[in-house]
Write a structure and sequence with these properties.
three-stranded antiparallel beta sheet; three-stranded mixed beta sheet; globular; binds pyridoxal-5'-phosphate; alpha+beta
Length: 266
Amino acid sequence: MAIADKYGIPVVEDAAEGMGSRFNSQVLGTFGKYGVLSFNGNKMITTSGGGALICRNAEEANQIMWLATQARDAYPYYQHTAIGFNYRMSNVCAGIGRGQMTVLDAHIAHHKHVQKLYEEQMKDIPGVKINRQPENPRFDSNYWLCTMTIDPSVKVKGQENAYKEVIKTAVGGAAGVIHQVDSPVTDCQPNENVEAMRVFMLGKKVECRPVWKPMHKQPVYAGCDVYTNGVEEDIFKIGMCLPAGPYVSDEDVKYIVDCIKEAIVK
Ligand SMILES: *Cc1c(COP(=O)(O)O)cnc(C)c1O
């Protein structure tokens, strides 16, 4: 923000998954000029889809809602001096969201609890590490996402078969939509042991997913400028997301950790 303020860059803060996290006691989504929260089905609370924009004052909120309601001028008929889209949340979804506010604290507490269980139960698996926030009171993560890393030296069952076949079904989170590809591999992908772990866990009815592929490695952004030291590519190769939602029980975590241990070749 110091750099953005210096150069007058308006920052829209993507705090989509950050609801309930704090940095220096300040709530995420309140650092930028605007903050964005996601209420997609997999987030801290959900309205089935959609999200919220955090504004700094009533004037900006009014301007945003004007744009989000097709930018209509105050006439009895439709008159437009600007282009706006129909981007507002429906009242039905908003009603769900108001109900969800009553479980927000419980969901945040649950995610922190699940993270703690993972940390305790995974501390002795060689080469496998659960990611945790720095030991510094400035950080207070909601642990929306519990993730682990798998060292390249770890051998996982079925590793020799990783990436041999093109995926023909819908991938996680894609609402059943299949966009068929020709090759099972790309030039930037999780290591074979990570992919083998995903497949092994799926066989145990546990959905684990890779972490996010770096933006600059997305074909759609090929040719865009990129400033990086490569750390995000390294993390993408060794990272994996673990189940952590409100329905994940203590017994589930134990089962998941047991499966991870079972997947590793001794
Ligand atoms: C989930 C998420 C999004 C996407 O939010 P949707 O409401 O699913 O569009 C964007 N950015 C981050 C950091 C997210 O976690």
